[in-house]
Amino acid sequence: MEDLFADDVPPANGPDAPSEDAPLADRLRPRNLAEVIGQEHITGPEGAIGRMVAAGKLSSLVLWGPPGTGKTSIARLLADAVGMRYEAVSAVFSGVADLKKAFAAAETAKKAGPPGFRGTLLFVDEIHRFNRAQQDGFLPFVERGVVTLVGATTENPSFELNAALLSRAQVLILHRLDAEALGRLLARAEKLEGPLPLTEPARDALIASADGDGRFLLNQAETLYSANVTAPLDPAALGLFLQRRVAVYDKDREGHYNLISALHKAVRGSDPQAALYYMARMLVAGEEPLFLARRLVRMAVEDIGMADPAALTQCMAAKDAYQFLGSPEGELALVQACIYVATAPKSNAVYKAQKAAWKSAKETGSLMPPMNIVNAPTKLMKEAGYGAGYTYDHDAEEGFSGDSYWPEEMQPQSFYQPVERGFERKVRERLAYWDKLRQGRD
């Protein structure tokens, strides 16, 4: 029977089958979700996408992962798997007018679709590039079911997407492709194009050079096929022939925060080798060295503190040395400071003391210090009792008076609790000695 609605349903702008001269990455796009490599945790039968497809019903999604991990392919195959109309826009090339056009087409398709029409899957690539107001524009169409939104982003959705949009979409994390997954992808290319002109070690080097990006790997393989190389290349020859993929790193985005977090935690965990690795990752990727110097200073006071007071001196000296020498010579000073703080005894007693003292100060307001230690610059104030009874500690036995320095309405507190490590062990003994003297004079 003729479909009475066929001419009224706007066609989707989904991708056509790739031509024979299309890039290798396009020709090797998976034809179904089972062929997607490296993301089985979400596409498999027990994964979120696998369960949705089995149920025949999709919710709006945000696919978050590094470049070249299959986000676009998964969105296209999702529409095919559940029989939805597929439409795609890119935040890089599209504006408000393009979005309005896509929503209007989806509205028309919903009204004119035949019985059982499952609606439009709208794929938005680089969705984080739309500003907050533009993201808000998606909400009514998602809420009314005009479109099922599938967004793709390389940035942390918590930072880049509106909370209202995130509350209506499930975030699925795609993994960078590991060596095994990249090897399978390369085998698929060789099945189509023939063996690559590489020795086995060179093949491993090619996979490592992709840094988890499947698209980059296939582009590299296509370059090799186009070069008509006769003799197999070894790793050294391959290195001269091809370039490594530049590491993914944006100084104000996810890669930046992930690596500085890893560096800080490696220092806190007293692993100088891992700390050096993450510092090198950041510097090689172009991080501002003085940013790292500032973070090292923070580590010295937050995670070492009085356990080794020289850590702060080392880090400040490293900052001065870098400013004096510049790159690359000055980076050695940062390396020295990094090793110092990673190998120093650790204590967060100063950090915890600050938090506790600040909290107490906010809670107690404007309590007056005891009269014996308040300022008494005038005769009138002295006559009123300001400073009366103050004991000059240097004149007291053992240089310690044992006086109370707390407001009368407040019990003495113990904000700073030194640990039994490093220099703080001596500080702890000293505080215990003074407490004993103070108790003996009460």
UniProtKB/TrEMBL annotation:
Gene3D superfamilies, per the entry: 1.20.272.10, DNA polymerase III clamp loader subunits, C-terminal domain, P-loop containing nucleotide triphosphate hydrolases
SUPFAM superfamilies from the UniProt entry: P-loop containing nucleoside triphosphate hydrolases (SSF52540), post-AAA+ oligomerization domain-like (SSF48019)
Keywords (A to Z) from UniProt: ATP-binding, DNA replication, Nucleotide-binding
Molecular functions per Gene Ontology: ATP binding; ATP hydrolysis activity; DNA binding; enzyme activator activity; single-stranded DNA helicase activity
Signal peptide (residue range): none
PANTHER family to which the protein is assigned, alphabetical: ATPASE WRNIP1 (PTHR13779:SF7), WERNER HELICASE-INTERACTING PROTEIN 1 FAMILY MEMBER (PTHR13779)
Protein name: Replication-associated recombination protein A
Species of the source: Aurantiacibacter atlanticus
Lineage, highest ranks first: Bacteria, Pseudomonadati, Pseudomonadota, Alphaproteobacteria, Sphingomonadales
